[in-house]
Amino acid sequence: QMFFHRGRYVVLFDDAREGDPRIFAQLVSAEGQMIGDNVALSAPGTYAEYPAVAATERRFGVAYTTLDEDGGSPRVGLEFVTFDQEFGGAGNVVVLATDDVRGVRVTALGDRFVVTWDRFSGADPADSLYGAVLAEDGSVLVSPRAVTTSAPHARSQGTLSLGDRLLLVWSDDLAGSYELYGQVVDGNLGIVEPRRQLTQGGFLSTQAVLAVSDNGRVVAAFDQYLPEHHAFYLSFGCQAPPDDCSTCSCADCPDCCVVR
Fold this sequence. Notes:
The chain is mainly β. The chain has strands spanning 2-5, 8-15, 22-29, 34-40, 48-55, 60-68, 75-83, 94-97, 101-109, 112-121, 124-125, 130-135, 140-146, 154-161, 165-172, 179-186, 191-197, 205-212, 218-224, 230-238, 257-259.
């Protein structure tokens, strides 16, 4: 994963230079020059992959999957740890899940981190996405719990910070075929804006990626696999926009964001 933060690029990756994969970080200047060396973030001997990272004012929050093959069938777990913004001062490693983890995301909301993920049972997604909330020191504020309901299978979420709220867009088969749904939760995973269906037609919509403009407009880019595989996007606005919606900031809107 890579993002731009306080004049520098923050790059996270997994690397098997020492045998089993570990998570590494690299800071890069705006001009493209490496700042220091690669920094190892996961412990030696931990089969760590697929990092996700976000930044509060003071700390980076990093989550990654772990692979445990002891006892036969592989188990994919999830760990979380925070660092200062030079990737030093590591906090305690927190184990959030021990099996069936996929699609990890970390989102910063004020002075806390929200970690969300998919769960799989064999080849099939579980019936909910899961989430947890952690403080900047890594302490657990909200223990892992389901954050979506009602569908037989749920998968492939995108997340976006709205300041003190989280916009979550995911794919589930509540309507029969996989469609995109959106929901807004607060910093304790409480529902602020309930689930809302964003796509329809049975075209197998999934893999949403979210971005926001300076004026608060949100775009979700996503895949549709039927009848052919193409990429699409949706634009989000406010539920009660002013006459000129270009001036509306969803982060300031009492009813937050819904698709328009």
